[in-house]
Amino acid sequence: MKQEIKTALILSIVIVTAVGIMSMIFSSFDESISSNNILESDSADKIDKSRFKKAPELVGIEYYLNTSSEELKNKIKDKVVLYDIWTYSCINCIRTLPYITAWDEKYSDQGLLIIGIHSPEFEFEKDPENVKMAIDKYGINYPVVLDNDMETWKAFENRYWPRKYIADHEGFIRYDHIGEGGYQETEKVIQKLLEERSLSLGIQVPSAVPLVTIEEFEHTIFRTPELYFGYNFAQNRNQLGSDEGFQPEKLVKYSNPKKIDLHKFYPIGEWINLADSMELVSDVGSIKLQYNAKEVNIVTSNDAELEIFLDDSPLTQQDAGKDIISDNRLVVSEPGLYNIVSSDSSSSHIMEIKIKGKGFQIFTFTFG
User: Fold this and answer.
1) Which helix (H) or strand (E) segment is 177 a member of?
2) How many other CB atoms sit within 10 Å of the CB of residue 1?
3) Of 299, 310, 309, 311, whose CA–CA distance to 365 is shortest?
4) 9, 185, 304, 339: which has the fewest C-beta neighbours closer than 10 Å?
5) Contact 264/254 with Cβ under 8 angstroms?
6) DSSP-derived 3-state class of residue 109
7) Measured between alpha carbons, how far is 28 from 35 in angstroms, rounded to an integer?
8) What's the rounded Cα separation, in Å, for the pair 330 and 315?
9) CA angle 274–135–153, rounded 5-degree value
10) Backbone angles phi, psi at 2, to 5 degrees
11) Which phi-psi region, left, alpha or beta, contains residue 262 (left: φ > 0; alpha: ψ -120 to 50)?
């Protein structure tokens, strides 16, 4: 019996070790796929492109901004193309835009074409007028296409915001990056593919120049996850702390909570539960939550005036986000993302938002 137990233990150790080794192998494999290392050869002619996929066609596009369908079709030919899948109320997408707009200005004359594929998360992001305001706000001059039915998103087999794919001048996807970061690596890929293009087409391009330098946002390691107010988005997430819970398409009177748990939100007043948001029905209402982060953003719609309190005191100028207009007030005038808290360091607080404005909608909180 003892020998059997000993044998079983040895076998278990061997299995666990093998699984660990295989995990490391597959982890490294995944990383190599996401990077799609192109630096295989100094000569573009020697690169075996059989393992690379071609970039899919832009399909299901409802609107074209900064371009037209025909113009964009002509522009793509023989260009290195950076496809940026984004949506304008996504804070992670917004943080990447200074780099992307800088690359557009720096490399567009050398054969780089940037295409913003705007794939919306919320209904209000499907409105071309809202997207126009966003591209003006962030200084986007490159083409932006509205993928309102997510057909191009699906064609790329994508599941993330933001995501950058870079295709070479022959249309092969040579680089794939999910989320923020990796900016120097991405720009080096742009430079390398532009060099390949120039060699292939027999044209001259400037030598590699210093990389774009922009201060990168430093994330808090331990921070509250994104909090969704829509019952569809909140599926399988226990983020609403109120006893009344989610009640799809119903008007719910939420009471003042007796206690507030970390990483949960508590609406107070009369709210309609919608698929992607909650809408305030009464003239006034409030939201309480306990969070841990240095930055807090809110995605909202419809006119309202908000007062922000941290730990029962009005939000101070030191912690005020860039969209706080004066004192501790935020005026919501157009649908989108608003930065309400921006502190030097991460800490835990109980926040209360007092709202004046019947019809005010809240979609999500995001934290940094």
Assistant:
1) strand 173-178
2) 5
3) 299
4) 9
5) no
6) helix
7) 11
8) 11
9) 60
10) -65, -40
11) beta
Q: Tokens 């191009």 sit at which residue?
A: 152
CA 83 to CA 164: how far, in whole Å?
6
Token couple for 198 = 């120039």
Residues 367 and 299: their CA atoms lie apart, in Å, by 11
Distance of alpha carbon 353 from alpha carbon 290, whole angstroms: 12
pTM for this one? 0.86
Alpha helices (runs of H) in the chain, residue ranges in sequence order: 2-35, 69-76, 91-107, 128-137, 151-155, 183-201
Residue 113 has which token pair? Answer: 């074409």
Residue type, 272: I
Which of 183, 35, 201, 48 lies closest to 110, judged by CA?
201
Distance CA 234, CA 364 (A): 10
What span, in angstroms and rounded, lies between the C-alpha atoms of 359 and 75? 43
Kindly state the tokens that stand for 179: 């989320």
> 296: which strand partners?
341, 367
Please name every residue paired with 280 in a beta bridge, in sequence order, or none if there are none: 271
Q: How far apart are CA 166 and CA 195, in angstroms?
A: 14
CA-closest candidate to residue 279, choices 256, 240, 250 = 250
- What's the rounded Cα separation, in Å, for the pair 357 and 355? 6
pLDDT by residue for the chain (368 residues), tens only, comes to 444 434 443 444 444 334 343 333 333 333 333 444 454 444 445 788 889 999 999 999 999 999 999 999 999 999 999 999 999 999 999 999 999 999 999 999 999 999 999 999 999 999 999 999 999 999 999 999 999 999 999 999 999 999 999 999 999 999 999 999 999 999 999 999 999 999 999 998 777 689 999 999 998 889 999 999 999 998 888 899 999 999 999 999 999 999 999 999 999 999 999 999 999 999 999 999 999 999 999 999 999 999 999 999 999 999 999 999 888 999 999 999 999 999 999 999 999 999 999 999 999 999 99
What letter represents residue 285's amino acid?
G
